[in-house]
Specification:
The chain is mainly β and about 130 residues long. Helix content is about 0%, strand content about 40%. It is globular, with a radius of gyration of 16 Å. This is Rieske (2Fe-2S) protein.
Length: about 130
């Protein structure tokens, strides 16, 4: 978020209870950790240095979503042309292949109102902090 009057970046205060789930050294790029907080299974993923946290449950049939592959997807293109893009923006359900955006939890294909809950996660000093 950017302050419109000064043009400087601002950071909104996170909502929820603060939970330290790992150190940055324990969660290097390309790794993930599944944590249990208040009875919820949440996946914390470090994708190319970007932290994401999602409910570890596919809304389709309850698969452990955060155990799925992180990848991009095929872009719109002309017939018989194939173009891969949006590298590492999606997690794929390991059971049925549904793809969900890591940043919003929204599915790539319209599934009606189904989406995955996302949580705020940040690096604070040497810690990875999840807000639930």
């Amino acid at each position: 978020m950017t302050d419109a009057t000064t043009g400087t970046a601002t950071t909104a205060a996170p909502e929820g209870t603060r939970h330290v789930v790992a150190t940055l050294a324990e969660l290097p790029p390309g790794s993930r950790r599944i944590v249990e907080i208040d009875g919820r299974s949440i996946g914390v993923l470090n994708v190319d240095g970007r932290l994401h946290a999602l409910m570890n449950r596919c809304p389709h049939h309850g698969a452990p979503l955060c155990e799925g592959v992180v990848k991009g997807t095929m872009q719109d293109s002309a017939p018989h042309e194939y173009s891969y893009g949006r590298h590492n923006e999606f997690v794929v359900c390991p059971w049925h292949g549904y793809e969900f955006r890591l940043d919003t939890g929204r599915p790539l294909v319209d599934m009606g109102r189904l989406r995955v809950r996302v949580y705020e996660v940040r690096a604070e000093g040497d810690d990875v902090v999840l807000y639930v």
